[in-house]
Amino acid sequence: MPSGALEIVKRVTRDPFGLLGLVLVIIVLGAAIFADVIAPYDPAKIDIINKLQGPSAAHWLGTDQLGRDTLSRIIYGARVAMGIAVFSIGIGAFIGLILGILAGYGPRWLDALLIFFFDSLNAIPLILFALTVIVILGPGTSTLIFVIAVISIPVYGRLVRAQTLSLRRSEFILAEQAMGASLPRIVGIHLLPNVLGPLVILVSMDIPSVVALEAALSYLGLGVKPPTPSWGTILNDGYTSLRSNPALVIAAGIPLVIATLGFTFLGEALRDALDPKLKTRRTP
Amino acid sequence: MLAYTIKRIGLGLLILIGVMFAMYAAVFIVPGNPARAALGPRATQEMIDRLTREMGLDQPYIIQVYNFFANVLTGNLGIDVMSNRPVAAEIWEVLPNTLILCIAGLGWATLLAIPLGCLAVLKRGSWVDRVASLISVGTISLPYYVVAIYALLIFAVKLNWLPAIGDGEDGDIMSQVQALILPAFAIGFTWVGYLARLVRASMLDVMGEPHIRTARAFGVPEWKIVTKYGLRIALIPTLSLLAVSLGGLISSAVFVEVIFSRPGIGKLVTSAVALRNYPVVMGAVLVMTAIYVTLTIAADLLIARLDPRIRDAFRGA
Known about the structure:
The complex is a heterodimer of chains A (284) and B (317).
Chain A: H1 5-14, H2 16-33, H3 35-38, H4 70-105, H5 108-123, H6 126-137, H7 141-168, H8 171-178, H9 183-219, H10 231-240, H11 246-274, H12 276-282
Chain B: H1 2-29, H2 34-39, H3 45-54, H4 61-73, H5 87-122, H6 127-141, H7 144-158, H8 173-206, H9 210-217, H10 222-244, H11 246-259, H12 265-274, H13 278-306, H14 308-316
Helix pairs in contact in B: 1-13, 5-6, 5-8, 5-11, 6-8, 7-8, 7-11, 8-10, 9-10, 10-13, 11-12, 12-13, 13-14
């Protein structure tokens, strides 16, 4: 594993696609963080007189059916997309981490129970789970975060469990146990740092699918509720006015393309840089 | 083989019962009466009481669960609270549409992905391999619904070659095929890259095996080794990974049906969710889960049939 962050960045940018991914991700994150600075208009400002306009000098990407500036809505949409991704994956990874360590380091029966839990969650197709939860809790941002967090638990939990299982038999952990180290010490100081690396790689590879899922459910009207600008709702607005103003739907698709490709390229380059073993398996 | 089949089917049934139980329980976790939620805010107390009785919600929980399971076993999925028609009939009407869409989508993706994966192995490390892997990454990570909408904009709205919505005229095969093209393209899009990657990776594993080396020593041309000796074995792990991802196919069918306003179980369930039409949502989710479980079992059994090692491992256990 490379020591410094600088070394990782160097390795990632040596790969042209890694560099491209990094640039695209910086654009998306920049839009999310500095949305209120760079957005030319208020994303919620309605201007019916100028509705459904094509691209112009005043509105670079045109306006939607309420005359709102598309570019500003897309920029604020980055904030929504990234916020949901960070929260849902964060919660899912945190619970997955705890359950994974419990399964891998705890008693055998607990392991069997948790594995059964992971498998049953995995056995339900994502969309069916999402629809069932949404019909019960009602659509909205918090429901969306809940759904994505829950469906990511088994993926992260399984990875952490596998890592923990192989680590608990390793010599340095056995030595710690022989010296009478306490449980919190073994888990906190020895297990956790070794488990986090692969988890971070997996999490970064998951971002594009979470971004795509958020937009897809919002597109169906089951995710982020209007007037909050989500790339999915903007896409749906564009779909509705497909014939009168195609510029809107074209513009709405672009951030999704940028974000998913960017995070995928960066994630793959990161994995190659951090975990050479995975790389040799992928391209022998 | 028989023991394996029985165990696998038993596990599938367990999952199905688990999902049903969880869904049924979930409705009761929510505060408020499902009948009230189904009827909307303007319903009178009398209407709510009647629907509560009709749905059997005034009975003890354990009786309700029993009734629910007993009804499902006899093919009764309840009554749609909006249209007053049996849910089973509504699902049965649109189900073939969804299956045709899934088969067509997976079909074209497979036909393209297998040659693509083979080509990548044949020209390993060359620009062909790089292009193939770029196509794979691109189709996997790009959201297929964005691609679908762009395709719709180009081919249906601008060029007017294909219909934008629906599933064609009744009895007119030509129009039905035309209406299938764009949705099938959208649903198969992700799978091209996914399958090509699987074929390539499992084929590279196979290419290191002794029988391939022997074939090479006999001077068998490389393309023949790849397609005849490599692909046959490489398809087994491909198939097993495919089985695990079938849930994704169902998910994408839901989105694609909504985008193209194509009648199907996905369109049915999403409009039911929007209206909080519980019986339809529960029935559709149940049917989709059943299809998914059946498909995974079928794939697992097929794999066991093709790969004696799995069969024997299970027999030994």
